[in-house]
Design goal:
Length: 263
Amino acid sequence: MLRPNELRARLAAGRRVHGLINSIPAPLLVEMIGYAGFDFVILDLEHAGVNPQTLEDLIRAAECCGLTPLVRVPGVEPGPILRALDAGAMGIVVPRVQDAGQAREAVRAARYHPLGERGISGGRTTGFGTLPLIEYMAMASRELMVVAMIEDARGVEHIDAIAAVPGIDMVLEGAIDLSQSLGVPGQAQHPSVQDAIHRVAAACRARSVPFCAIPRAGGQYEAWCEAGVTAFLHGDDRGIAAKALRAHLAGFANAAAGTSRAK
């Protein structure tokens, strides 16, 4: 059943929030993310192959450990947005938003009247009828989030208009795709990419729309905090797991090498 959105509440209170992308579609891993202390998780339907039943199970796992589940859908098409929200997601993350028109499309697909025209359904979001549909719709208008990702030069160019669209609750940067759009593929720290990201952050600040940063280099987290940013995404579980596994094995290899030298 739909419940209060703790992520939205924390943002409104000016508290820092930390999230992670879930690229390994395993409910157990989502629980681990929650119990590790993260505030929100972005369940990925854009790059990961997740079937509808697994998505519901991932959302249930987030619910059981107090983690706010957002779903990154493939785009602004209404179908995937509808299914993600009907599965119980507390919001959607829309990739490659390039202008205000696309932002409005996402809002229209995710929200009920008056901002949108999302299809009406019951099911698990209403506790199978224990929450009256009218109450659910009113609550959904207050609690569900629409997050726009800015991942190319066109999105940066139109960020002022995107941030001004009613119903956009947060803006998330996407430096890697943005780097390709700016002609420096894979160079997230390139000055042109960093300038674009700061332009996005400034537009969000001017519109009082939360901006979510992705710190990728030493000192960036602290700098964003000093700039007043309170929302952070810290990569994805797949990358973190791969690095941890390599580091775990390397620790034994280093210990073995030290033993050999001692002999």
